[in-house]
Amino acid sequence: MAPFKVNTQKTIALLFGGIGGATLGYMSSRVEYGGHIHSFNVLCSIDSDPVACMNHDLITGEPTSVCMDLFKRWQYTAWHGCAPPPEWQEVTPADLWKAFQYQVPDFLFSSPPCKGLSGLLPNEKAKSDKYQALNYLTVHGLELALRACDEYGGKVPGVIQLENVPRITTRGASLLKQIKKLLIKYGYAVSIRPDHNLGEIGGLGQNRVRFLIMARHETQVPNFIEYPEKKPLRSIGDVLKDLPYPGDVGAGGPLHRLSKLQFKTWMRLALIPAGGDWRDLQTVDYQNLRVMHEPRRGAFEVAAWENTSRTVTSSSGPGQSNGVTSVADPRSQHEDHLPVFRVQPAGGAGDLQSADIANPNLSERSSRHAATYRIVRMHEPAPCVTGTRFGSGALAIADMRVNTKLMPDSYGVQDWEETAKTVRSANRTMQAAAAVADPCIKDRPGRYTDKFRMQDAGLPAATVTGVTDVQSGAQLIADPALGNSPRSGTFGVQDWQETGKTVTGSADVHASAAAIADPRPIPQDTDRGVYMIIAEDGTWHRPLTTYELAMLQCFPAHLPDGRPFQLIGCADAKAREYIGNAVPKDSAMEMGNVVLLALAQAEAGDHFSMSWNEVWVAPEENQPEAMVH
Length: 629
Hints:
It is a single chain. By secondary structure, this protein is an alpha/beta fold. Helix content is about 20%, strand content about 15%. The chain has helices spanning about 20-30, 50-60, 75-80, 95-100, 125, 130-135, 135-155, 170, 175-185, 200, 235-240, 250, 265-270, 545-550, 570-580, 585-605; strands spanning about 5-15, 30-35, 35-45, 65, 105-110, 160-165, 190-195, 210-215, 260, 290-295, 300-305, 325, 340-345, 375, 395-400, 415, 435, 455, 475-480, 495, 515, 530, 530-535, 540-545. Its EC number is 2.1.1.37. Keywords: Methyltransferase, Plasmid, Restriction system, S-adenosyl-L-methionine, Transferase.
């Protein structure tokens, strides 16, 4: 019989918790030590954004968010450009003590805003009073929390962690000095490093290098905190392959919409090689490239827009007609029916009369981020997910799941009167011309003589039988009584320049003038839509959807209420910002595991243990240089 395990919970409070990525991770942390199973009980997640707080509780399934503005008055004025309203008050240590449910958390996690410290923000803006005020939250939030615990609880948290971007070591060097001095004052041993890869900590599908401070209170936690075991990075394709197809908002939710980009942006994406970025556009020989429309071949023929149509037959419908019933319409911009284009050299096979591609050149400038328009390879880890819009980060992928090259004989039907094609090993109807138009209906004993019989209107009818089926009895007649002519407008094609005809209840191409001679060409450079352009490597270079970015950040595919993952109360651009600012759940879970282990060992009095694992909070260590994304 297995020994009984006691569940023991350690408390955690989060500052600047956002939409709950870190909260989800720490809620998932579990450690077994000394016959106890240790986990975290979340006291609160504090954030100033009410929409972020609302989504935090929606995602985590627990009402632990607290909406609280931690700005000092001068910070509020500098950030908003005006004085706060009369009802606004600065948060006090007493307010935080109430948010902490009147107890000192065992673990305090802080992820203050990093926008002013990130390399994505131009240096001039980063130096402004507005962003300096935002940056000061790194110090002020921590100071408020320590004062609340010390003044009202008589002690401070056993472990404190602060997460931010690596460039804080340069743009926020003075802030880090204040933070280190503050932590040492309260009795903490401090590790400050900018080279933590949350991708390796959590085994993610992205490289996410981050700055982390880990501080342990030497009196409460005299034992070291071990560094999480590094995991191999997954490829971005490993994360995306099992997700709904991009644009399928039914399965992936509203965040799975494809971005409607300008046509010239789609062109640029198609010309950037997988793994490259905007700088590769400078080497593209775009004057010798063309965009060629590539219609499908074989059965269910799709007519070319500029060619004459085949004969319109009476049995009009895909799969039941020997005439053309489909057209390759280059105008469609609907997400469920994408026009397919292909980039190919001008001297290659294909329609050389297609339109020239848009000029892809982007001018060099010092403030342009290196990952602009970057195309991620499907089999490699994704770059760091940021909160910025498309065009500023590596938010595009060379998606290899698009396969438009069928064998020329796929679903081929051979003519009875002609020589058969080569018999191949892949002798299936979908791979070779393995079907034949057979005109023979073999006679056999027992076959009823009236099968498919066509009766003459001038002769007596055959016996009426109980088998009322056109193929089993004489149920057909050559009726000469059809003397009417189709009404005006049947199969009518209207002129683009003229007023449209009356829309009737039978507005169908074979019943009224429900067709149009549409002269519009391939989209213009500034036309927005979703266009599928197959790059020269055979993949579709497309933007990642917001839903896919959330999955790279380890958010759950579905909310606790069963809906696909989504954020409410915000536009898509803001949703991307929330997702990019979040701490990946799997990384937070692994970091929470080592913190739980250290707290459990300290509680058990086990202050020394042998381990192969790296020590996280060493007494002194050489700080590596900052890595900037």
